[in-house]
Amino acid sequence: MSAAALKALTLHHALAVGGRTDLSDRFFDRAATVVEIVWEQAIDGDLQYPETDGSDGPASAVLEWYLNRLFRRAHTDRRLSDAVFPVISLQQPPSTWFRPRVFWRVLRTVRNPRTHSYEESHPRTEEHWT
Fold first, then answer.
1. For the chain, how big is the Rg over CA atoms in Å?
2. Phi and psi (nearest 5°) for 120?
3. Where are the domains of the chain?
4. CA distances (Å), 11 to each of 5, 50, 91, 103, in order?
């Protein structure tokens, strides 16, 4: 649904900029970016299954390791969690996961995981239950 909403927004902008003149060219050029991001996420998810045909070279192994670590660490690190969800919900491109502040936070070693627990950085309040 996020992809459909983004394509609808893309159509809105294409209409606002040039009306119906050459609308299909302008719309599909812009929508290709949205579709490409969603398609890449789907393909990357499929590559974890051995039945999937596709490239699984050394670069894929490094990327898979990094993303697995990012997702694991996002469970206990609020800043990483804040970096993951906008990409998953298609609000930001996946390239934001490779910005230096995210990259180094994923790679750093946590000496005391208790000091970085999700519960401590996200204290529960009454509004969570109402």
1. 19
2. -70, -35
3. 1-50, 55-120
4. 10, 38, 17, 34
Residue type, position 78, single letter:
R
The number of CA neighbours under 13 Å toward the Cβ of 26 is 15
**What ranges in the chain are assigned the alpha helix state H?**
2-18, 23-46, 58-74, 78-88, 100-107, 118-121
Tens-place pLDDT, residues 49-100: 777 776 666 777 788 889 889 999 999 999 999 999 998 888 888 899 999 9
Q: Output the six-digit token pair for 29.
A: 């050029």
pLDDT of residue 45: 67
